[in-house]
Design brief:
6-stranded antiparallel beta sheet; single chain; about 90 residues; mainly beta
């Protein structure tokens, strides 16, 4: 199955987070936070949203930082994705 976002939506795949701290402590899955770093896997076409033209600035493959609690989480073929508006993306990591 493939996810194709509409308008100004972007599909993000969270990057894997380390399961041990720098000091060597192993974290349980319950104590791990939702990762803020993600990879863009699909981008909508942009267009008119709320009466304003929206140009898409992110591209597939970009590494980005998104708001911690933004978007909608979905699971497709046992892979978790987050669908956010482009405006929920805070920065592109270079």
């Amino acid at each position: 199955m493939k996810i194709k976002p509409l308008l100004d939506r972007v599909v993000l795949k969270p990057t894997e987070i380390e399961e041990t701290t720098k000091s060597g402590f192993i974290l349980t899955s319950a104590s791990q936070e939702k990762p803020q770093f993600s990879e863009v896997v699909a981008v909508g076409p942009g267009g008119v949203v709320d009466g304003k033209d929206v140009e898409m600035y992110v591209h597939v493959g970009d590494k980005v930082i998104a708001g911690k609690y933004s978007g909608t989480e979905v699971k497709v073929d046992d892979v978790e994705y987050t669908i956010v508006r482009q405006s929920d993306i805070l920065a592109i990591v270079e």
